[in-house]
Amino acid sequence: MATGTKKTAQRQGFKTGEYIVYPAHGVGQITAIEEQSVAGHTLELLVIVFDKDKMTLRVPVAKIASVGMRKLGDPDAVDKALETVRGRPRIKRTMWSRRAQEYEAKINSGDLIAISEVVRDLYRSENQPEQSYSERQLYEAALDRMAREIAAVNKCSETEAVKQIELNLSKAPSRLKAAAEAADADDEDDQEEAA
C-alpha cells in the first residue's frame, strides 16, 4: 500500500482542521486527506485524530455516510442536550442487561440528544443510592462523549463542559424535589435527636 500525497481540501462537506463526531469514538479532528493506492484503485481517506484516546482513524471518503460520521452540533443542539439533562429521568423497568445494551447503543449512536438522555437517566446526586460499577462506567462514557462535543462547540475545556452539564443536572425538577425531601428528612432527624 503506497501512501500518496496529503491534501488539504474538502470532501463531502468535511475539511481538514474541522472537528467531527464519529459515532463509535466521539469527537475527533480531521488532520488530513490522503490518497492511498489499493489493488490498483486510488482511495481518498480522511485522517481523523482522537487526541484523548491517542488514536488515528483513516476513513474512506466514500464511507463517510455509512459510518454515520457527522459535523459537530451547533449551539442550539448543545442547548437542547442541556435541556434534556434537566428533564425527569426515564428508567425502564426491564432487566439491567437489556437497559445497559440500550444505553450502550445510545452512546455509540453519536447522537448528542441520545447521549444526554443516558447522562440524565444514570446521573446520581450525593443523596441518591450508589450506582453499580457498570452503571457508573456507562454514565462516565456518556458524560465524556457529551462533554467533548460541548467543549468543541463552545470552544471551552472539557472540565468546563462537565461543570456545565452537572450544573444542569442539578437543576432537574425531580432532583431539586428529592434534595428538598432529603433535607427535610435530615431536619426531622435533627429535631428528634434534640428532643
Automatic annotation (TrEMBL):
Residues 13-123 form the CarD-like/TRCF RNAP-interacting domain. Transmembrane segments: none annotated. Residues 174-195 are annotated as: Disordered. Signal peptide: none annotated. InterPro entries: CarD-like/TRCF_RID (IPR003711), CarD-like/TRCF_RID_sf (IPR036101), CarD-like_C (IPR042215), CarD-like_regulator (IPR052531), CarD_C (IPR048792). SUPFAM superfamilies: CarD-like (SSF141259). It holds the Pfam family CarD_TRCF_RID. Residues 183-195 have a biased composition (Acidic residues). It comes from the Bacteria. This is CarD family transcriptional regulator.
